[in-house]
Design goal:
Length: about 150
Amino acid sequence: MLVEHGFVRAQLPDGREWTFTPSIGRIAELGTPEGVVELYAALHGPRAERVAREVLAALCDQGDASDLIGWLDEDGGEHDGAMPAAERLILARHLMQHGVCGKPDKAAARALTASATAPMRNSTPRRALSAWRLSRTIFEVSRSTS
């Protein structure tokens, strides 16, 4: 597992495993830059556990992670997978941090961990949006592609 760079692998006792890659391309698939920032913010709000499942499903390298992360049925009912909701949330926040902002320094990582349960500050979405736009520019991802 390359946690330092955002890549994560989860394995069940029976040997099944899933990998999650927070690449700029995968993050772009989550929506517009503004939509990605809204998802990032939602990971710290009242719908965080449901949003975490959505983020993990999008960033999973395998086709179906429902046995691990759970799923929603047609009626909106939630079905848990093998991974507890709190772990899904931590993993989704970690992947979004790396996918949107890149590798944080140690002080920033400590601050992120310390504020994981605190309400988001107004400056965080602006910083994330700025990082997202800069990433699009660096990797020459057009707005129509993202």
